[in-house]
Specification:
The structure is a single chain. The chain is built from 6 helices and 8 strands. It is an alpha+beta fold and about 170 residues long. It folds into 2 domains: about 70 residues, RNA 2'-phosphotransferase, Tpt1/KptA family, N-terminal domain (Arc Repressor Mutant, subunit A, Orthogonal Bundle); about 80 residues, ADP-ribosylation fold. The protein has a 3-stranded antiparallel β-sheet with strand order 1-3-2. Strands 5-8-7 form a 3-stranded antiparallel β-sheet, with no helix packed on it. Strands 4-6 form a two-stranded antiparallel sheet. A hairpin with a 2-residue loop joins strand 2 and strand 3. The longest helix is centred in the N-terminal third of the chain and has 12 residues. Its EC number is 2.7.1.-. Removes the 2'-phosphate from RNA via an intermediate in which the phosphate is ADP-ribosylated by NAD followed by a presumed transesterification to release the RNA and generate ADP-ribose 1''-2''-cyclic phosphate (APPR>P). May function as an ADP-ribosylase.
Length: about 170
């Protein structure tokens, strides 16, 4: 858990803090990452890194060849280069009650991230919402959004990404 959080912090939000530079698509060389973690008093072995990537329940990271990146959730400027994808009829967003007034008024916004994160099923959205309190799951009429020209992308770990979700596509009574 500590390794996953450390990697998230530095591969999604603050790579410069440990001397890393992500490429335009968010990738960094694994060797550079391992050197940087060791240089900053958080040594990770390649075996530990591979284990975290393989068993992380949220599948936050991808290793491709000699490179690694976070699958989504960046606050630093990256282009994940994910192709547009046709979503299922409904996607889901987990939230908590104190956010509902803003969501009703403005819809779902990416806040400090690049995209709104949507789950493919209610169970995943429930877990996401539960991180902040008692979860409320909002169905998103993704088929209607897609028909109306909104673009969806899906990350390597199955998280659906949209620029925003206007309120008219949300179902508050479900």
């Amino acid at each position: 858990m500590k390794v996953s959080k450390y990697l998230s912090k530095h591969l999604r939000h603050q790579p410069e803090r440990i001397g890393l530079t992500l490429d335009a698509n968010g990738w960094v060389e694994v060797d550079a990452l391992l050197r940087a973690t060791a240089d900053h008093r958080f040594p990770i072995t390649r075996a530990e890194l591979d284990h975290v990537v393989a068993v992380n329940d949220k599948r936050r990271f991808t290793i491709e060849g000699t490179r690694i990146r976070a699958n989504q959730g960046h606050t630093v400027e990256v282009d994940l280069d994910l192709p547009p994808a046709e979503p299922p009829a409904y996607l889901y967003h987990g939230t908590v009650a104190h956010s509902l007034d803003a969501i009703r008024a403005e819809g779902l916004r990416p806040m400090n991230r690049h995209h709104v994160h949507l789950s493919p099923d209610r169970e995943t959205a429930t877990r996401v919402g539960a991180r902040r309190g008692r979860p409320i799951v909002l169905p998103v009429d993704a088929a209607a959004m897609h028909r109306d020209g909104h673009v969806f992308r899906v990350s390597a770990n199955g998280v659906w990404l949209a620029d925003a979700v206007p309120p008219r596509y949300l179902r508050f009574s479900a």
